[in-house]
Specification:
With 286 residues, the protein is α+β, with helices and mostly antiparallel strands. It is 13% helix and 15% strand. The two termini are 18 Å apart.
């Protein structure tokens, strides 16, 4: 995704003490660029360990974080549960990360505001000018820019969106953390066994209110856009962070699908032009 992509947010990670580290220090995960990833491929998901119940800690910025244990997990397309994989999700493979903690929710407007007040985060470009343009596949959606939450009263608990990668990275550093690698993000979202969704393998209609995506409410406003049939989360644009506890990942992380896309530490391409965004947002269909 381009570094200037709209409707994106930060979630941050920090190192945890790995179970086999003997208390000697933090075990940091290594960034795995798509072009240079090493992993084991195969059609069968290996359960390397039992899913552990969510554990949480409070980060230096006051945000609750959930713990993700180290070890192997399934990354990418899991053809046993998902027949709709994109090309860049293939082949699925086993990867391993060290233990870490990740923010339980997306960074809110109020939380980013504290970083801006400390002059560690920039507000440049967070409020698009009235004549700003935004298009998807050549179709004008400039009205969607009103979904940018910065500076709008009553949105303090909405996700801090419309951030550049540099702004998201600056927030995490201010909080004493960093952006997650793509592998860390995916393990935090899907667990060890390659779930199709954070909550499991049931689709949106069958799982209940689990995420803020392009739904029936969105379709009524945007009749020419694709949306989930039979699913309505009641939000046209962004929702307050953590609004869908039923959509929690195996480790308790929220909004890993929908609401706003989330920056990661990794590059998408070998030319280092685009950073990896994960999770999709309120105008993405399932």
């Amino acid at each position: 995704m381009r570094a200037g992509q709209r409707v994106v947010v930060a979630v941050c990670v920090m190192a945890a003490y790995a179970a086999n580290a003997g208390g000697q220090g933090p075990a940091l995960s290594q960034p795995a660029e798509r072009a240079g990833e090493k992993g084991k491929t195969g059609a069968t998901v290996k359960r390397a360990a039992r899913e552990e119940p969510p554990k949480s800690r409070i980060g230096a910025d006051g945000k609750e974080m959930v713990e993700v244990p180290g070890g192997e997990f399934w990354m990418g397309c899991n053809e046993t549960t998902d027949t709709e994989c994109n090309a860049d999700e293939k082949p699925g493979r086993l990867l391993s990360v060290e233990a870490f903690r990740i923010d339980r929710t997306e960074v809110s407007v109020a939380e980013y505001g504290r970083c801006a007040d400390a002059e560690a985060c920039s507000s440049d470009g967070l409020t698009p000018p009235g004549d700003s343009k935004f298009a998807i596949n050549g179709v004008d959606h400039s009205d969607w820019l009103q979904a940018c939450n910065w500076g709008t009263a009553g949105r303090e608990n909405r996700p801090m969106n419309c951030l550049s990668w540099q702004q998201a990275n600056a927030y995490c550093h201010w909080a004493g953390k960093r952006l997650p690698t793509e592998a860390e993000w995916e393990k935090a979202a899907r667990g060890i066994a390659g779930r199709k969704y954070p909550w499991g393998n049931r689709d949106f209609v069958g799982a209940g209110l689990v995420a803020n995506i392009a739904d029936e409410t969105f379709k009524r406003k945007n009749p020419n856009m694709e949306a989930a049939k039979g699913y309505d989360d009641a939000f046209l644009e962004t929702a307050p962070v953590g609004s869908f506890p039923a959509g929690a990942s195996p480790y308790g992380a929220l909004d890993m699908i929908g609401n706003v896309s989330e920056w990661t530490l990794d590059w998408y391409d070998v030319e280092h032009q685009y950073r990896v965004l994960r999770g999709g947002c309120w105008h993405n269909p399932p």
